[in-house]
Amino acid sequence: MATELAIFGGPRTIGQQPPHFRWPRITERESAAVLRQLNDTISIYGDTGIFGDFERSFAEFHGRKFALLFNSGTSALHACYFGLELSQGDEVICPTYTFFATVTPLLQTGARPVFVDADPNGNIDPLEVERAITPRTKAIVVTHMWGFPASMDEIRSIAEKHGLRIVEDCSHAHGAKFQSKIVGTFGETAAWSLQGAKTVTGGEGGIMLTDNERVFQNALLLGHYNTRCKKSIPKESPLHKYALTGFGLKLRAHPLAIAIAMEQFRQLEVFLAQRQRAAAILTAAFTKYEFFNLPRPNGNYPSWYAFIALYDSKKTGVSRECLVRALHAEGLVEVDVPSSTCPLHDLPLFTSPPTELFSGQESIAVIPKSGEWKAVEYFRQAIKLPVWSFADEEPMVTKYAEGICKVADGIKLLAEIC
Ligand SMILES: *Cc1c(COP(=O)(O)O)cnc(C)c1O
């Protein structure tokens, strides 16, 4: 007979005290890098030192011309939109299912987000993108959700057909590849967060890449001034005269953060390889059960920012919350239900914005669809697990896989208490 579920008083699968997942791992290399930086300088005015090192290696890794660090991914996204010269009257097609900071900085330009539904992987659906295009549409924003690359071939051909620009939010997808091409290289511009939970992290930070010099110069002037702008904006550029003052914001990164991020970036491919192994262990557990659906890699190389399993409670009669309670009782406390990363189209900022603050924008968002959203169903079904990045954590991944199978094997029994 199978062991009794912990929720009914049986033994827990994992007795070890949480946390079972720690990210990032701060080792001697990060500590040494921070100390080195501390003794060198803690404010960088130009593109020298650790800023130059990080920007050059990040640009080179992606084969792009211009890189610009920021104090956050949100700022880097703001700079992408500002760089494209979006303004009032423009529409930008955005995924409804993404972290809200993909879209919120767009509001600063006056352009309107047009929310579009998700495909089965949770990524913006190319068919819905095409439907949402109007004569005012200027750009399409893509987030590679949870590290799964969006359908960039289709999105690119739609963009080409309609003369639209693409912005990629790669904050979940450092180093992920669509087919064999790295994400962040498909659009006019792309942004990455370097925040504490992200795959390349400095605690806080962000970076944008582009090949378009004008986009780069606009972005530079949005968040930087003086030394950096004077150096990077040639005298012949019509924008050079603004180099002293910039355009009004200061969004510069902190050198200590970038010193950490540099060490993390050097290890990116090692982390990603280990995540593939962890994800394979979890995948093998979940795919045994017909009431779980997993996003499909479709021949791409996901970065496995998180592991998402879609749970169909209609097939079991057991609610998702009850399933999660049973998993927690087994000691799988890192199993989570995504909450703040949710469909955006019915958030107050977009449905009832403070018009006195966003003056002149007749309404903030366009929500071209009523009725059922696939993104909402995805959100309702999703459970989320961490994806471990270190070989010495593999036994823990295996324990999680065991706990999942134990609860899934006993799912019918949960019906009594749910
Ligand atoms: C983290 C994140 C952001 C925002 O980045 P910050 O560095 O926290 O400002 C934007 N988009 C997505 C998809 C993210 O995950």
3D structure, described in words:
- This protein is an alpha/beta fold and 418 residues long.
- Helices cover 35% and strands 12% of the residues.
- It is globular and about 75 Å long.
- The mean pLDDT is 96.
- The chain binds pyridoxal-5'-phosphate.
- Pyridoxal-5'-phosphate binds at residues 72-74, 98-99, 101-102, 143, 169, 171-172, 193, 195, 206.
- Pyridoxal-5'-phosphate (PLP) binds at residues 72-74, 98-99, 101-102, 143, 169, 171-172, 193, 195, 206.
What string gives the helices and strands in order?
HHEHEEHEHEEEEEHHHHEEHHHEHH
Radius of gyration: 23 Å
Count of beta strands? 12
In DSSP terms, counting alpha (H) and pi (I) runs of 4 or more, how many helices? 14
Percent strand: 5-15%
Q: Please tell me the overall pLDDT.
A: 96
The N- and C-terminal alpha carbons lie at a distance of: 23 Å
Question: What features would you highlight for this structure?
Answer:
12 strands; 14 helices; 3-stranded antiparallel β-sheet; 12% strand; 418 residues; 7-stranded mixed β-sheet; alpha/beta; binds pyridoxal-5'-phosphate
Question: How would you summarize this macromolecular structure in one to three sentences?
Answer:
By secondary structure, this protein is an alpha/beta fold. It is built from 14 helices and 12 strands. The protein has a 7-stranded mixed β-sheet with strand order 1-9-8-5-4-2-3, with helices on both faces.
List the helices and strands and how they pair.
Elements: H1 28-40, H2 49-62, E1 66-70, H3 73-83, E2 91-95, E3 112-116, H4 126-131, E4 137-143, H5 152-162, E5 165-169, E6 177-178, E7 181-182, E8 189-193, E9 206-210, H6 213-223, H7 227-232, H8 255-266, H9 268-286, E10 292-293, E11 307-311, H10 320-329, H11 348-351, H12 374-381, E12 382-385, H13 394-409, H14 411-414
Parallel strand pairs: 2-3, 2-4, 4-5, 5-8
Antiparallel strand pairs: 1-9, 6-7, 8-9, 10-11, 11-12
The structure holds pyridoxal-5'-phosphate (PLP).
